[in-house]
Design a protein that fits this description.
It is built from three helices and no strands. The protein has one domain. The longest helix has about 35 residues. It is mostly helical. Pfam families: DUF1634.
């Protein structure tokens, strides 16, 4: 990866994370406003905003995987795919063994 493409990737990821963070903050804020006007009505909106905060790093990995695949940088594609697989495995194990696992 050349310094030029590295800088472009850094700018793309920074813009993505900045937009995602602002969107999650807006959703959480909307949920708080809804909850302030009618207790309990903003819980789903708050949960959606928090879920977006949690998903942002995973979405960043997906974006990096796509950029690396487009650049045909298969070493980094493999690394990003492996990290995503570990996260997916952790989610599956957590659902199967967690408190909601029936």
């Amino acid at each position: 990866m050349t310094p030029r493409t590295s800088a472009a990737l850094d700018r793309l990821l920074a813009a993505f994370l900045q937009f995602g963070t602002w969107a999650a903050c807006a959703i959480v804020g909307a949920g708080m406003l809804l909850d302030a006007h009618a207790a309990g009505s903003g819980a789903a909106t708050l949960s959606a905003g928090i879920a977006l905060f949690i998903l942002l790093p995973v979405l960043r990995l997906v974006l990096m995987l796509a950029v690396f695949a487009r650049q045909r940088n298969f070493v980094y594609v493999t690394i990003a795919a492996t990290v995503l697989a570990v996260i997916a495995a952790g989610c599956v194990i957590g659902v199967r063994l967690g408190p909601l696992a029936g």
